[in-house]
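Run log, item B.
One chain of 791 residues. Sequence copied directly from the ordering sheet:
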Amino acid sequence: MPKLQPSPCRTQSSPSHHNMSLSSGGSEIPGNMSARSFSEISEVENFKVGLDLVSAARRNIGFLRTVAESQWLHQQPTVIEAIRRYNELWMPLVSDLTVESTTPPAIHPPIDIEWVWFCHTLNPVYYRQYCESKFSKLIGKATIFDEENEEYALMRCRELWVRRYPNEPFENEVDSDSDVRVPEAANEEELLEEVKKNRFLHSKFSEPYRAEIVYLIAAKQRYKRFLFMVQSTIDLCSSLVPASDIMLMWLSHQSYPTVYAEDLKEMEGDLGKVVSMWATVKEKEVEETKKLWERTFDQPYEKAGGEIALELDGGVSFKPTVYWEVSDTDVNTKYKPMHPRFLLEVCVFVRLRDKMKEMQEDMKRNVLRLRMVRCHRELKLEKPVSDFPHSSWRKAWHLYCEFGTKGVIFEIRKRGGSCFKGSSVQETVTFHWNDLLRAPSLTLEKEDQQVKIVASITPPVQAPYLLKCVPDRVTDDSGAMISDLILRMNQYRPQEGRWLSRTVLDHAGRDCFVIRIRVGAGFWRRGGETPSAVKWEDRIIEIREGSWSYVAGSIGRAPVKLVGTAIPKEPPEQWKAAWNFSTGDELMIQWELSSSKSGLSFGLKNQAAESTVKLLKGRKMQYQVKKKKSVTKDEECQNEEEGEEEEEDEEEEGFLTLVRYTEDNPNGRATALLNWKLLVAELMPEEDAVLVLLLCISILRSVSEMKKEDVGCLLIRRRLKEVKLGTRDWGSVVLHPSSSSSISSPYLQPWYWNAKAIIASDGAGHITRQPSISYSPEEGGDKFYKRGILA
């Protein structure tokens, strides 16, 4: 294979949408800033791969997800039977079919056999030895990436199978509860270990951006550069550690064994020093790989979506601070005011320019500040310029941003002298997400007079919705706000009924829904009849889609379209409250007064639903927040643990995790996290927003009535202003734990880590005590609403 040489620097441009393919072009950076894309390996002239790596990787990601979700595939009897079928039936069939052709037959095996075959090929040396010992040749795999062609190949395989093995079922029909058969063939035990080892392989590549075409093109480019580095640094490093994007391409290449063997036949010996997927590596090996990459390509090794995914021996591993998973459907598209939320990962590396070596004293007062182009106006992350080295790239920030933030701005600022406060801007560098999406490897480098900055991103993909409820004015039965203005417009006809209102805002502060809670009935006017609270069974809750129609100032009418209702019903025995939802769900609530804790328990059922739903108290599954324990003395252990348990109980109070159980996923999948005390929720696109909102408000209403106190500040009947500029941007920027060690702001953490700090202080009405607000007489006094809520 010819030696690979980096091609000259070039800049590419492409359409801004993350699903669009790349096209070449040019771009310029105005002013005194310079920008360049990284040196690329010429795919046509220097190195050819006999496989469509992008399609192969995309197909493998989908396959691994299917395997991960198919619990039956991981049962011991099923796996052992699959290995037998693979050894005795499948491989001999494929071998015989390749006698007449040099290319693998275009047939597709059943999923259990395909899974064993896939795991087997990820150990190329072992797979080659197996094939040559049994068939005297290397058995290849057909490259079928189109779904229709896959269905045809599976059907064709079934025909050949039935003809050759009339007494063997095409599908794996072993009962998962049957006795485990002892592996008989010599290689069955080894294959069993390979399959067990790769069972959780999907978790390494589960982020939804991994399947985006733009990401995979960038990953393929980096994989080729990695092969070049392997070939050209034989004597410089004992072990090379692939980043996650490179590992994805490497495994996809390996899964087509004949193509892999042909493409890399001159590098077979060199690849032995590349660390495998499940190896535990030393920090020293990681650092050596990073240095070799920097020396070879003059760029940082790690990037957004290209972290070191292997387990470090003695190193620090971080659990991602955001949870995003592939969602097949978005049931909330039926609600027009709901806009999808898109999230991307950002990595920023910095190093000093060479000419700054002689200017150490001048740099001591300089800082590099990160801000967003849009949203989160108060975000100002700073690091001293003197902290960055000249010789290598250093990761400055690792964060997750909503696509609506548009980009990042970096300012070189000089702090004032001893008599002056603040700082002045010296240079400014800006990276826009759309420019980065057009760049090769989704990465750009820019520089100013002092530093070089490299920013990389992942393609934006849909993330969970974020919704919160804020107080709003009291309305009448028609949905009009209670006001002298409305009375005059109605020629002083009295407004009938009284409803508490909450406006639902999305992650960007846009109105999505208006929630109304009925508390009073009757015709009343200013100074007229005394309002009366309605009976419990008449205190219905309704959700209307859209935003208020304002007639003057902050006075208006609720939207007309009704999309959800909750009606109180007589609770069954042993339950304290029950609600019927328009979604077909039934909610039941219990409160044990004798319990030392909150004593709340919940039941949720829907007779027509295909899945079973449970409400788990607290932050569970991916939302679990683990607290560090610091107990140093044995005699203090018990007291400290008890105190910590009480603190954790208080933090968990109000949180509920909505988990759906299906036949394919018996362990459950958390589709929403809600806090009914704060009226805030995070939900996956496949979870119905109206159901989650009905749960929040129904539970809050019921608990307030049970405890005879205004638990969630429902008595606030005015829209409150933001306490602090920028707090509306909750979730727009989240720092990765590796970047957040010195950052204490809760606004840069997931909202549920410290919900009270993020939500309760933003002026949304979730506060510990009601502010002193004077309400107009026609709205009714506090005494009436307390009767309506707490009676």
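Observations after the first pass:
- The longest helix spans residues 76-97.
- The longest strand covers residues 511-524.
Flagged for discussion on Thursday.
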